[in-house]
Amino acid sequence: xxxxxxxxxxxxxxxxxxxxxxxxxxxxxxxxxxxxxxxxxxxxxxxxxxxxxxxxxxxxxxxxxxxxxxxxxxxxxxxxxxxxxxxxxxxxxxxxxxxxxxxxxxxxxxxxxxxxxxxxxxxxxxxxxxxxxxxxxxxxxxxxxxxxxxxxxxxxxxxxxxxxxxxxxxxxxxxxxxxxxxxxxxxxxxxxxxxxxxxxxxxxxxxxxxxxxxxxxxxxxxxxxxxxxxxxxxxxxxxxxxxxxxxxxxxxxxxxxxxxxxxxxxxxxxxxxxxxxxxxxxxxxxxx
Length: 288
Description:
Layout: H1 15-52, E1 77-81, E2 102-103, E3 109-112, E4 116-119, H2 125-137, E5 147-151, E6 156-161, E7 167-170, H3 180-187, E8 198-202, E9 209-213, H4 215-221, E10 235-238, H5 242-278
């Protein structure tokens, strides 16, 4: 008798079908690791940026309202008024240095005789006098009546747009009681300015304020209800009129052409100068 041996059927899977799931898992793991690394880098950079930001005020270390009470800011100088009787004491001869103006160092300090360098950034004149009196009280057996004065033009406002003066404008020469109308008249404006939509911007990290004022109506009617008092670090922005905006757009479009024309004229002048110097041309002309 003939028996058929049972045939064993073995199914062999292709090697690619076995490796593909492994490759996919490795790919997803690498992708997840890359995303985590990018997220950590992004969060680290965002954290560093947040550390540079501030939550209140303008952003400078010394803050206040200089039009109400002046204070020491970066770039200011400090001078002290000392009574003449203090100079009669030979031991107090070094106090004469306080009568000379001292500009703040970059870290906001000044030199006080017999006391060394002290931090005065942000102090008012009365606080300065009280500080120096307290320092000298431990040196001399008597109290010296000292008064402090802050000099300098570090307090500024900013002018942008179609203004006559642009950028930082010192506040002290404009006057102590500065208003918007006086500030606009002082900084001036271009022929393209729209005086009906002047913006007074009061910057702040938490609550910035933008007030749009019709200065043209204020000038023509005399109604000064919107004549806002201008403070330190305020921004005055004068937008252009519609035609002024068109003119500025055309100016920007034609600016590269103007540069190219000026370059070509410069090259032509160089070529003519070379020809005149070598005797290749005897033609002369003058440019006015």
